[in-house]
UniProtKB/TrEMBL annotation:
InterPro entries the UniProt entry points to: ClpP/crotonase-like_dom_sf (IPR029045), Enoyl-CoA_hyd/isom_CS (IPR018376), Enoyl-CoA_hydra/iso (IPR001753)
Annotated CDD domains: crotonase-like
Domain of life the protein comes from: Archaea
Upper classification of the organism: Archaea, Methanobacteriati, Methanobacteriota, Stenosarchaea group, Halobacteria
Protein name per Swiss-Prot or TrEMBL: Enoyl-CoA hydratase/isomerase family protein
PROSITE patterns recorded: ENOYL_COA_HYDRATASE (PS00166)
Length: 226
């Protein structure tokens, strides 16, 4: 289900199950994790095939979960994939073109940069079927859009268009061609990209973060030819 291509310094990972709006089965989650871990390029573009980005978890697979233990294991599986995205050395760019629902939103939230086309829509739709976003949704959504917006979006399950997603900071740009954004980022120094991602994702004590920032600057400086 995961198609891997390369475009210069950009690895393109495509969720390729358009007949199910790229909904993810347990096996597909494992394949996505492996594809993210295996990417050597400095930038990875994550996108969906067809008219959707990702509908989240395959609801047939969710319905087949046998008991509480199986349900918790499935949630942890999705969390592991989101963590692999967040902790990858590559910069992950989510290219949302069409619908992102539930787990699809949560995978995008784990990415470093989220861009949308004008056709993109977003919904944390778990509440509408009696569930919640369990691939890091209740953790990352308030971190990205703030507590109040996260409560509204998650409790209502309402659909956001690209402009509203941009306004609340769920995406950073609305563009016609997300690949151009990935190429723009990939045009920068790979070591600097890795260092910036690591430093921006550092959630330690402020003084420690500033010391690590200075050390990263010095390391990059030493590798430059002046």
């Amino acid at each position: 289900m995961i198609e891997t291509d390369a475009d210069g310094d950009v690895c393109i990972l495509t969720l390729d199950r358009p007949d199910r709006r790229n909904a993810l089965t347990p096996a597909a989650l494992d394949d996505l994790e492996a594809a993210v871990d295996g990417a050597d390029e400095p930038v990875v573009l994550l996108r969906g095939a067809g008219s959707a980005f990702c509908a989240g978890a395959d609801l047939d697979a969710v319905a087949d979960l046998a008991d509480r233990e199986a349900a918790e294991s499935f949630a942890r599986r999705g969390q592991r994939v989101a963590r692999a995205i967040a902790e990858a050395e590559s910069v992950l760019v989510a290219a949302v073109d069409g619908a992102a629902r539930g787990g699809g939103v949560e995978l995008a939230l784990a990415c470093d940069v989220r861009v949308a086309t004008p056709a993109a829509t977003f919904a944390e739709s778990g509440a509408t079927i009696g569930l919640l976003g369990a691939w890091g949704g209740t953790v990352r959504l308030p971190e990205v859009v703030g507590f109040g917006e996260a409560m509204d979006v998650a409790l209502s399950g309402r659909v956001l268009d690209a402009d509203e997603a941009l306004r609340m900071g769920l995406v950073s740009r609305v563009v016609d061609d997300p690949r151009a954004v990935a190429a723009e980022i990939a045009g920068n120094d790979p070591a600097a990209l890795r260092a910036i991602k690591t430093r921006l994702r550092d959630d330690g004590d402020r003084d420690d973060r500033e010391r690590r920032e200075a050390a990263a600057f010095a390391e990059l400086h030493a590798d430059l030819e002046w």
